[in-house]
Design a protein that fits this description.
- There is one protein chain.
- By secondary structure, the chain is of the alpha/beta class.
- The protein has one domain (7-312): 3-Layer(aba) Sandwich (Rossmann fold).
- 38% of the residues lie in helices and 19% in strands.
- The chain has helices at residues 15-25, 52-62, 79-86, 97-111, 116-127, 154-160, 182-189, 203-211, 216-222, 243-249, 256-263, 295-312, and strands spanning 7-12, 33-37, 43-45, 48-50, 132-135, 142-147, 150-153, 169-173, 193-198, 227-230, 233-234, 237-238, 269-273, 285-288.
- A hairpin with a 2-residue loop joins strand 11 (233-234) and strand 12.
- The longest helix is centred in the last third of the chain and has 18 residues, at 295-312.
- Bound molecules: guanosine-5'-diphosphate.
- Guanosine-5'-diphosphate is lined by residues 12-17, 19, 53, 56, 200-202, 206, 230-232, 234, 238-241, 243, 290-292.
């Protein structure tokens, strides 16, 4: 850990974002890191309020994540799911017993009137997460996907239909009326802001719901600190998940350059993999090894992204 050099705001989805968030959390003092989590994937299932990206971040940052599955908690047991299945209930969304407890307690607190951000902060504290994980909003935003047979809910697409439907369009229901979390907007206006990092997350379903919230694009455009993204596409492929497939289906080039074309206007620098060197023009590019397999990979990439931000520097004249 180093002495404070200013606040870093990281925009994150689930798995890809959480890898870099972990690297950042091991590189920065906890008070210098604010991780803003996408909540467009949130949904209600079996009467429970489920926040997949928040939970992936929480489990990853606390060391409780299931490394083998790539989602959920380590040392998980499945009695609940097996019983739901045996009773003929809905078992397509796998909820382990330990994970289930998080959703039950979150649901109880939300119904009692707590905000999602308050519940998340308390869970993080209790699970030993030092950095702050902040939902992008406490209001309801729900990503939907236009498939060939019409609009479907995000988890129907992502988990139930395993990303098989061809994506024609996406919508973030409720985003116009949602209030961007005030602490997020305040952080972007902080004189002490060192950098904004767009984690290597799916542009369409993780990053763009955050960018679509009221005031976020304007606050990013106005903020004095550099905005640096890490490409979630390496050599034309997603490391995991439907990012490249979605890009192709939406008529975009499935490449690091394709991602930059999507929100490059907001960026002051772009970190991409060695394999993609030379493929992006028009903004300062930092080429490195971006596949995070080990903890050391996560920490190295975090340092490189922070150095890139410091090199690009303050945008204020
Ligand atoms: P989700 O919400 O669980 O789908 O997770 P994210 O949106 O945060 O991350 C999905 C994206 O992370 C995919 O596009 C992956 O290609 C990307 N990703 C996953 N692991 C890595 C990695 O080690 N390096 C890079 N550069 N991208 C990664």
């Amino acid at each position: 850990m180093t002495a404070s050099e200013g606040l870093v705001v990281a925009l994150s989805g689930g798995v890809g974002g959480a890898k870099l968030a972990l690297g950042l959390s091991r590189t920065l003092p906890p008070e210098d890191l604010l991780i803003v989590a996408n909540t467009g994937d949130d949904f209600e299932h079996l009467d429970l309020s489920i926040s997949p990206d928040i939970d992936t971040l929480m489990y990853t940052l606390s060391g409780l994540a299931n490394q083998e599955l790539g989602w959920g908690r380590a040392d998980e047991t499945w009695s609940f799911m097996e019983t739901v299945d045996a009773l003929g209930g809905e078992s397509w969304f796998r909820l382990g017993d330990r994970d289930l407890a998080v959703h039950v307690e979150r649901t109880r607190r939300l119904r009692a009137g707590d905000t999602l951000s308050a519940v998340t902060a308390d869970f993080c504290r209790r699970l030993g997460v030092a950095a702050r994980v902040l939902p992008m909003t406490d209001d309801r935003v729900r990503t939907r996907v236009l498939a060939e047979d019409g609009w479907i809910e995000f988890q129907e697409y992502f988990v139930h239909r395993q990303c098989r439907p061809v994506v024609r369009d996406l919508a973030f229901d409720g985003v116009e009326a949602a209030r961007t979390h005030p602490d997020f907007l305040a952080a972007l206006a902080e004189p002490n802001l060192r950098a904004v990092i767009v984690c290597p997350s799916n542009p369409f379903i993780s990053v763009e719901p955050i960018l679509a919230l009221p005031g976020v694009r304007a606050a990013l455009a106005a903020c004095a600190a550099p905005i640096i993204a890490v490409s979630p596409i390496i050599g034309g492929r997603a490391v995991k998940g439907p990012t490249a497939k979605m890009m192709t289906e939406l008529g975009l080039d499935p490449s690091a350059a394709g991602v930059a074309a999507r929100y490059g206007d907001l960026l002051d620098g772009y970190v991409l993999d060695e394999i993609d060197a030379g493929s992006v023009a028009g903004l300062p590019v930092f080429v490195t090894h971006t596949l995070m397999k080990t903890l050391a990979d996560r920490e190295n990439l975090a340092r490189i992204v922070l150095n890139a931000a410091d090199k690009v520097g303050c945008k204020r004249p």
